[in-house]
Design a protein that fits this description.
2 domains, 19% strand, 178 residues
Length: 178
């Protein structure tokens, strides 16, 4: 009987030791991206399930900058009209910041498949033409801002905004996309 109790005690201590080593290994794997042959996908999955990883795994890893598309209609007199991508009704603070990532997913899809920008531009051309203000072209601009390293960041974590023209699509020359 005494021998069985001793064996159970040793088994319990061994399992506790394995659990502690497992937790430390998962924590190290989550915080240090060490490329080694002993890096097991199970550890990465365990760290993700325990929310220990600094990565967002829903659609992609977050980039080290924030960005969005800015779409402009260029009228025949060369004035520009800003076109909001999301004409949805206003949402609550909770929906906008915690539960609803439609804008991020939509912009990510546009970024990954540039041909979809032509479809969005065609939609804006047709919608504005139906309203009586036919634009000459649609200009798509990528607005982005790099995150600064901790040593450089003082009051703000972001560098000044930068803008890059992605594409200018002429309204009259577009083929009908079905």
């Amino acid at each position: 009987m005494k021998r069985i109790c001793h064996q159970l005690s040793m088994l319990r201590k061994s399992l506790i030791l394995v659990f502690i080593v497992w937790c430390l290994t998962v924590q190290l794997q989550a915080n240090f991206d060490i490329q080694s042959p002993i890096k097991v996908p199970v550890l990465a999955r365990a760290a993700w399930l325990a929310s220990l990883t600094p990565k967002w795994h829903m659609f992609t890893n977050p980039l080290k900058y924030k960005w969005h598309f800015s779409i402009w209609a260029v009228m025949p007199d060369r004035t520009q009209l800003y076109l909001p991508l999301y004409p949805d009704p206003p949402r609550s603070f909770w929906q906008e910041h915690f539960t609803d990532f439609r804008e991020d997913k939509f912009e990510l899809n546009l970024y990954q498949a540039p041909w979809q920008l032509k479809i969005v531009a065609q939609h804006f051309c047709q919608r504005l033409a139906a309203q009586g203000t036919a634009p000459e072209e649609i200009r798509v601009v990528l607005v982005w801002q790099m995150m600064l390293p901790p040593g450089e960041a003082r009051e703000t974590y972001f560098a000044p905004q930068a803008k890059q023209d992605i594409e200018t699509i002429k309204c009259g020359e577009m083929e009908i996309l079905q």
